[in-house]
Amino acid sequence: MRLATLAIAAVVAAWGCASTSTGSKSAVIVNAPKPSSPEEIVIYEYKYVPSTLTVPVGTTVTWVNYDVAPHTATYRSFTDEAFDTGNMTANALYRHKFRTAGTYGYICVYHQGMRGTVVVQ
Ligand SMILES: [Cu+2]
What we know:
By secondary structure, the chain is α/β, with parallel strands linked by helices.
């Protein structure tokens, strides 16, 4: 089942390069895991969902990796509150408490193009 999902994802990814149509993606999204709370970010099919999360100061945000591939959520800064999940294997979970208001644009260090934002206000 997991392999079948990955195969579909690969086809959709390949298709996505050739076309801007979103119709073919609906079959994959049906089974996509959803964040279980407003403070959770799901990593699935090389994306952060939601890609932008807005939370109040003091919120603990959780990332959960539903991909087989390892990922990170990494924000490096000398002036803001930095965070780094480190290597997140399949089903790994990481929490970070945001104590400072700001916009935190983070990346996966393994996969170019994987970007997310946490807005703390
Ligand atoms: Cu990644």
